[in-house]
Design brief:
The complex is a heterodimer of chains A (196) and B (144). With 196 residues, chain A is of the alpha/beta class. Chain A starts with a helix and ends with a helix. In chain A, the strands form 2 sheets. Chain A has a 5-stranded mixed sheet. In chain A, strands 1-2 form a two-stranded antiparallel sheet. In chain A, a hairpin with a 5-residue loop joins strand 6 and strand 7. Chain A has 2 domains: 31 residues; 159 residues, Glutaredoxin, CATH 3.40.30.10. Chain B contains 5 helices and no strands. Chain B is globular. Chain B starts with a helix and ends in a 14-residue tail after the last helix. Classes of the chains: A alpha/beta (196), B mainly alpha (144). At the A-B interface, helix 1 and helix 3 of A face helix 2 and helix 3 of B.
Amino acid sequence: MSRRLVAVLSLALIAAAALAAVLWTRSHPYAPVNTASRASATPAPLVVGGRAPDFSVASTAGLFELNDQTKPVFLEVFATWCPHCQRETAVLNALYRQFGSRVAFIAVSGSDVGMDHASPESQLDVLNFQTKFGPLYPIAYDGQLKVASLYLQGGYPTIVIIDKGKRVRYASSGEVGVAELRAQLEKVTNAATAGS
Amino acid sequence: MRFAVFAGRLALGMLLIVAGGAKVGHAPDLAAAVAGFRLLPAWAVAPLALVLPFFEILLGGYLVAGLFTRVAAWVASIQLLGYAAVIAWAVLHGIPASCGCFGPSDRASADWPHVAFDAMLAVLAAAIAWRAPGALAVDERLAP
């Protein structure tokens, strides 16, 4: 077989794969939320002081597993379409700048509705949210709404602070100011420092 | 020298095949990791996450077989330099990105040792390209 023929076949294979990938992602805008899991995304009341349920998600900073975290955890369950969540990004960015080295931040999508308020949520919505609102902290797309089914407290954004011992120390629903969250994080980080 | 190039081809090629193979079937996880570097527009992330694993396997296969060795090694060198640059950019900007080098089970975060490792592999790939094709290469058996 000639070198030229193999080269042409190889390039054709690569071009076909690239074209197929582009066409596929145009017709399937990333993995959409698995609608079969909607029923399980029922808010479960969290008990402050109670054990935080374990979860794992593929975030923009790699796999995030709650039980593997050695620092306190700041969890936000958000919706890409939610204006409160969009505004809360600035608050969380300020907190991340201050506490990012002492607290593991993670924001997880928790709605089956996309950024346009109409289409089903997909990973593309979460990545567009990142581009548009610029969260500095890791964010994750949860296609099964598993985290929302464990942590969502009535509305978006739900914010939960978990201590080093994996106990829930704070839970809120809706927009929260930076002062309140800073006070809660100081409490949990001071306790973590005293305990270590 | 011919067998040193062959050994380099084998090592780099197998590494690319393993890295690509570990990513196959995990496009959403890879897309999240790629997006974590905040360099590409959101629309470009998914096609890249779908194609990149197969591209790495193909490139690795060429290097192992010694097929289009010089071109494959230069492409690998540029690709690895790109990885090193992107990881360095994330570290310098304090972006909490994941290396994502070996699929979702790879929990290594982007850091300076990864930059050094990728840069070292890029040098190895450039050396292979310079002395291509080395021993036991399909290139030597193909008609021009």
